[in-house]
Write a structure and sequence with these properties.
Chain A: Keywords: Cell membrane, Membrane, Sugar transport, Transmembrane, Transmembrane helix, Transport. Chain A: Belongs to the binding-protein-dependent transport system permease family. Chain A: It comes from Nonomuraea rubra. The complex is a heterodimer of chains A (306) and B (444). Chain A is built from 13 helices and no strands. With 306 residues, chain A is mainly alpha-helical. In chain A, helix 1 packs across helix 13. With 444 residues, chain B is α/β, with parallel strands linked by helices. Chain B folds into 2 domains: 175 residues, Periplasmic binding protein-like II (D-Maltodextrin-Binding Protein, domain 2, 3-Layer(aba) Sandwich), CATH 3.40.190.10; 220 residues, Periplasmic binding protein-like II (D-Maltodextrin-Binding Protein, domain 2). Chain B is built from 17 helices and 15 strands. In chain B, the strands form 3 sheets. In chain B, strands 8, 9, 10, 11, 12, 14 and 15 form a 7-stranded mixed β-sheet that branches. In chain B, strands 1, 2, 3, 4, 7 and 13 form a 6-stranded mixed β-sheet that branches. Chain B has a two-stranded antiparallel ribbon with strand order 5-6. In chain B, strand 5 and strand 6 form a beta hairpin. The N and C termini of chain B lie far apart (56 Å). Classes of the chains: A mainly alpha (306), B alpha/beta (444). At the A-B interface, helix 5 and helix 11 of A face helix 3 and helix 16 of B.
């Protein structure tokens, strides 16, 4: 690490203040409290968790024997681990696409509406304010029940929204999109409002159509926001747990169980903390891979753009 | 149309349920704790209609014993409950007393998460081994150490609507349901009920839904009737008899596919349907009695039908345990035993909730024998099908949920009985292969 400091832009040659090396120079004193918390609550538990994943420790902290990579070997040979990991990936893909796309569409709609904007904003953003338990009860008890639920009742259909393994994941995606699209919508709306108006005026003078404006001005200028939303959305979707745990418990027939719930299941209801740690580290690895891939992808795009 | 389903024992939306329970009983906060009182913290999962009875018993104890204050905490039944017990017990700062299912004993890490029962203190409080049903008392031990005090056995029973069954001509001259034997008689009975109900499915049970264990309960009632077993005595081998297991599954599929049972009802809906007279029969545990009486459903109960031989029925037992505490206050401990002894000795009151007492003297008390319909099915106690004693069994255990998941689509008709059995066997093999998180040598 370099420790050179830029010379103060002073006119008169005053005596350079004695540079105290080490702690104070980097503001370490100020950063230290944060660093301490960071180490105590993030770095140390991360290491501890990895150590646990190499042991057979149970929820009572007993049976703490070093087993090497046995837990990982077991996890790699565990069809339910793979199934839940696959479910997580499927959910991430199925939810991210509509969440980004619909967020944009709704934002464009609301941005161009000239009356009662507050109502549309509230309508799209409102669900996001609800806690996951409320959302889950709402959909579980009022919208999805096969015999008296809102959807089957309205459409006259007979679908087991949460009871049919081929439908349940789509139902979870639908609920999630309804619940969380408001956040992306808001980010897009803010970005839309920051596009300078004169660009559109100039384009209008040049005879650009609404479609031209959208394609050549709006969408390119929303590029950075889109990147941000995709990054946030991928991480959020990979970490899905609440609504699935509360609404299907991972069923039917394991068709919706995400990997976080699998870690919870084996750790907290199966009492195998060591094995659950190993499963968690597999998810950790997945998130690191996805993040690195995104970083590379976006760096390339940035280079192309500049 | 029926309203939203009743509060059930098994909704995992635990926070709200626990709050509801606490609000309903009004005793989550130690409002009545006087300075001279000893406080006993008591956790239980009795949130169905048996929770009302438990609350009455706690209040009766308070009246009887003013020097002890019992702080009752009602938590959501099922996996979350056992997770909480495990977490509290592993931390060593757990409640003084908790209810428990005996079948979970082998899996919870007795010794690490539960403390052994002090037999001396128990005797001091007035309870002896000889007071309990021997096989149940035996099940409260692990490696010869007592870890639980049995309270009751709660088998699967058959609730029936006396109005509908009367109209269908299914009642005897004494007004009780005519017993059936074998598949044909059962199907004939259900068909008659179906006719008077205008073709609606006459039978309801927890067939579908979030973490459903209903299909397991029904199957584990039917299959052992023909002598079927799950595991070898030592729990190391699968001993499922395919032919017998499939016979039971085929019946379950037939009931669903011929419109004799509603395969789309979850726990709450099945109880709601029976409560509202939209089902003539309900197959469930015995704990819904109080609620049905309160809502004035015209009903009675009998043993689970004998279909494949004996009349055995799936069952588990409620028990009391002492979750592990690092420093147990001897005074609180003594008060805890007094409270347990009070509950157990007043088992006849508890039987009002539907359960069959494990305390033998209670079974002979005239109060108990006079209980209707509770004493109608007490003979099942010698034929209960209990879980194998391995670490992954018991109420809301992995085994129950896995088997429920495997068999639910069989009733719904999207899986053949053969596929359902294969799925269940695969799940069982997986559970057997996974290492026991609480190996016996860790118990000390």
């Amino acid at each position: 690490m370099t420790t050179t400091v830029a010379a103060p832009p002073t006119a008169a040659p005053v005596a350079t203040p004695k540079v105290r090396r080490g702690w104070t120079q980097h503001g370490m004193v100020f950063v230290a409290p944060f660093l301490l918390i960071y180490v105590a609550f993030l770095v140390w538990p991360t290491l501890l968790g990895f150590q646990m994943s190499l042991s057979s420790v149970n929820i009572a902290g007993r049976n703490n024997n070093f087993v090497g990579f046995d837990n990982y070997l077991e996890a790699f040979g565990d069809p339910r681990m793979w199934r839940s990991l696959w479910n997580t990936v499927v959910f991430t893909v199925l939810s991210t696409i509509p969440l980004v796309f619909l967020g944009l569409v709704f934002a464009l709609l609301v941005h161009n509406l000239r009356f009662m904007q507050w109502l549309w904003r509230l309508s799209f953003f409102g669900p996001f304010l609800l806690p996951s338990a409320v959302v889950s009860i709402l959909w579980l008890q009022m919208i999805y029940p096969p015999d008296y639920g809102l959807i089957n009742g309205t459409l006259g259909t007979d679908v087991l929204w949460l009871g049919d393994p081929s439908v349940a994941m789509w139902s979870m995606v639908l609920t999630t999109v309804w619940w969380t699209v408001g956040f992306n919508f808001l980010l897009y709306l803010a970005a839309l409002q920051s596009i300078p108006h004169h660009l559109y005026e100039a384009a209008a003078i040049d005879g650009a159509s609404a479609w031209d404006k959208l394609r050549s001005i709006t969408l390119p200028l929303l590029g950075r926001t889109t990147m941000l939303i995709v990054v946030l959305q991928l991480v959020a979707s990979l970490k899905v747990f609440d609504q699935i745990y509360l609404m299907t418990g991972g069923g039917p027939q394991d068709s919706t169980r995400p990997i976080i719930e699998y870690a919870y299941d084996v750790g907290f209801t199966g009492y195998r903390t060591g094995y659950a740690s190993a499963v968690s580290y597999i998810l950790f690895a997945l998130i690191v891979i996805v993040s690195l891939a995104q970083l590379r992808l976006f760096r390339k795009r940035e280079e192309v753009a500049s | 149309m029926h309203g939203p389903p009743d509060i059930t024992r098994r909704h995992l939306l635990g926070g709200s349920l626990a709050l509801l329970g606490a609000a309903a009983t009004g005793c989550a906060i130690p409002v009545g704790l006087g300075s001279s009182q000893t406080r006993v913290q008591y956790w239980h999962f009795l949130g169905a209609s048996d929770g009302i009875i438990m609350n009455q018993m706690v209040q009766a104890f308070a009246k009887d014993t003013p020097d002890i204050f019992v702080e009752e905490n009602v938590l959501a039944w099922g996996e979350p409950y056992y997770t909480k017990i495990a977490m509290a017990g592993s931390g060593g700062r757990s409640p003084d007393l908790a209810t428990f299912h005996l079948a979970r004993l082998a899996g919870i890490g007795a010794g690490a998460i539960l403390d052994p029962i002090d037999v001396k203190l128990l005797e001091e409080a007035g309870l002896r081994a000889a007071d309990f049903s021997p096989p149940i008392w035996e099940r409260a031990h692990l490696d010869g150490v007592l870890y639980a005090i049995p309270f009751d056995a709660h088998p699967m029973v058959q609730y029936y609507n006396t109005d509908i069954c009367g109209k269908a001509g299914l009642l005897g001259p004494d007004g009780k349901l005519l017993p059936t034997k074998g598949v044909d008689e059962l199907v004939a009975q259900l068909t008659k009920a179906k006719e008077v109900m205008g073709g609606k499915p006459p039978l309801a049970f927890d067939a579908l839904g979030l973490g459903t264990v209903g299909p397991w309960r029904v199957w584990w009632s039917l299959y052992p009737q023909s002598g079927g077993t799950l595991l070898s005595e030592d729990g190391t081998k699968i001993t499922i008899d395919d032919a017998k297991a499939l016979e039971a599954l085929r019946l379950m599929q037939r009931l669903g596919q011929e419109g004799l049972c509603d395969w789309r009802t979850d726990y709450g809906a099945s109880v709601a349907k029976f409560t509202n007279g939209e089902a003539a029969f309900l197959w469930n545990g015995d704990w819904e009695t109080t609620g049905l009486k309160e809502r004035k459903t015209p009903f009675s109960m009998t043993r689970f039908p004998a279909v494949f031989g004996t009349g055995s029925a799936q069952a588990d037992c409620h028990a009391f345990v002492l979750p592990h505490q690092r420093n147990r206050d001897p005074e609180v401990e003594r008060a805890t035993y007094r409270f347990i002894a009070y509950l157990v000795k007043n088992s006849a009151d508890w039987a009002v909730a539907g359960h069959v007492p494990a305390y033998l003297p209670a079974l002979e008390q005239p109060e108990y024998l006079a209980l209707q319909p509770q004493s109608e099915y007490r003979s099942v106690i010698t034929e209960v099908a209990l879980d194998p004693q391995v670490w992954y069994t018991g109420s809301a255990s992995r085994l129950w949920i896995e088997f429920g998941e495997a068999f639910s689509p069989v009733i719904g008709g999207t899986r053949t009985p053969e596929e359902g059995l294969a799925a269940a066997k695969a799940a069982l093999a997986r559970l057997m292969a996974a290492p026991n998180p609480f190996p016996a040598e860790e118990r000390s």
